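Record 1 of the preview.
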Amino acid sequence: MLRDFFYIRKSDRRAIIFVLCIMVIALLVILFTDSRMDYTPSYADNGRIKTDSGRYRSDNQGQPLYYAQPSTHSPQRFPFDPNTADSTQLLRLGLRPWQVRNIYKYRARGGVYRRKEDFARLYGLTVKEYRELEPYIRISSDYTTPASALVGEEEHYERDTLKYPIKVEVPASVNLNTTDTLQLRKVPGVGEAFARRIIRYGQRLGGYVSPEQLREIEDFPVDAIPYFVVDHPQTRKINLNKLTLNQLQRHPYINFYQAKAITEYRRLRGPLHSLKELSLHKDFPEEAIQRLQPYVEF
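->
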């Protein structure tokens, strides 16, 4: 049979060899994948990883490779020191995994919680959550400030507040059109990133007319909306008869098709005098017209 193989045409032999190589590679990939899945860790336990076989293994440095998995049960309440509590305890308290990671990063950089109020500056921690946790916070004497250093500590606390501002409480309110990023970060659930996005979106709009517009910011925490107000809104208006198609679609409330409809209307019928003239167009339902009304002029 092997002798007959060499009587096959050279092109056919190449095709057979190629198919055999593909089969061998596929078999190796399957075997390699199965071997990797056998050692997939299920959860972390004090710096060790428990595999599906029930055995534990540690990383090379003896440090936990993962944070403990968050519990699906209701939050528990027990005394804890934010300077020494591990991830399992913090998750049992009801903190989110990304908040636990922030605590670990803060402590790794040398950060210390010297008073209960310091923990209130944790990003994403609401006033309600802090009030529930406050009675259980225990700051060890190893981390408290000596009396001789209280004056310097107060100065440090004021500087640190600029970086991690203490959150405000309802009915305290923040005016969206006159605020800055520092004031925005005092709102529970609003950190530095969301503060910048609020300012940028207000600039793109031409000013806010309602706090409900914050829902239009992707992933914005809706629980923070009651902290905002808009007093005497004064918007920056755009002239629908003067702007080009590209300029029109830069506004958040005008998409490409709506901008094209406006320019086509001007070309065929002349200048616009009211948004009602666009109401018969399929791209301008009543909701779109009402939303755009405070931001246009003719």
